[in-house]
Amino acid sequence: MLDIAAISKRFGTRQALADVTFTVRPGEVFGFVGSNGAGKTTTMRIVLGVLTADAGEVRWKGTAVDADLRRRIGYMPEQRGLYPKMKVGEQLRYLARLHGLTQSAAAASVQRWTDRLGIAGRAGDEVQKLSLGNQQRVQLCAALVHDPEVLVLDEPFSGLDPTAVEVMSGVLRDKADAGVPVIFSSHQLELVERLCDRIGIIATGRMVAVGSVEELRERAGAAAVLEVFGPGPGWAADLTGVDVLAVDDGGRTRLRIAPDVDDQDVLRAALAAGPVHEFRRWRPPLTELYRDVVQAGPEPQEIPA
Q: Does the residue 304 lie in any domain?
């Protein structure tokens, strides 16, 4: 797996990263999220060797990542790194050859990926003449054309329409299913929640949480929170071991229950108060989990095996 092990980085007096540690496993899509300036791009550039860490190490399959290993990583930067006046097909074949593919293998790979991403018909166009969304597709082709062992993508969904988002999501999922570790950053938290197996949240250069969405929900105490739709306000005020967190005009009551409280007892109390239209465990979206874990601060770092 890809191990980011206690990496730190300073720019002058600013501590950009502080002991950042997480792993990306083979066959896993890992979402890397945080606000602007939190340290996502700096971390990715260290993985790629564009920047050197002041401390810590990046390992792949237990070995420190060197220049040879980095050539087997597919990288998609946030800022487009394409030659704007070069034709799409010519550029992708050139990049594939730089990664060691033969001329025929490069041509076949370019054809396969431009077909898959819906831009084969634009192979003869200059990059600068494409829409921003199609330029983004070319960037992904450039990251995939040499059949990388690891994928590192910085804001790959930026500027894409819904159809292109679905195509790119499918590509990332297919690569992960083939055993490739995939890490990408994004501000589109709903997409991250839907696509990713695990998520890492970084704030001011420190990892504040790493885990699946369900694990983040458990950390937030969501497993002990119920939502009941139907009975009028006040029905749960006197229940032992139950705290009323919120009541809204739509007939929803959100409750936190103590560990020794049976949720079926809560349901019976709700039914006694009036018709119950819905009774469920609360599953907060990643947007709420993100806000809560960033405000709560860091948890113990995940230590690679």
A: no
Range of the domain at 50: 2-212+290-296
**Residue 287: which of 166, 224, 206, 201 has the closest Cα?**
201
What confidence score (pLDDT) does residue 297 get?
60
Say whether both 153 and 9 belong to one domain. yes
What is the rounded radius of gyration, in angstroms, for the C-alpha atoms of the chain?
23
Percentage of residues of the chain with pLDDT beyond 90: 62
pLDDT surpasses 80 at 305? no
* CB-based contact 297:219 (threshold 8 Å): no
**Total Cβ atoms within 10 A of residue 9:** 22
Residue type, 231: P
Instruction: For Cα atoms 37, 211, 21, give the angle at the middle one, nearest 5 degrees.
Output: 55
Domain harbouring 159, CATH code: 3.40.50.300
If one counts the domains in the chain, the total is 2
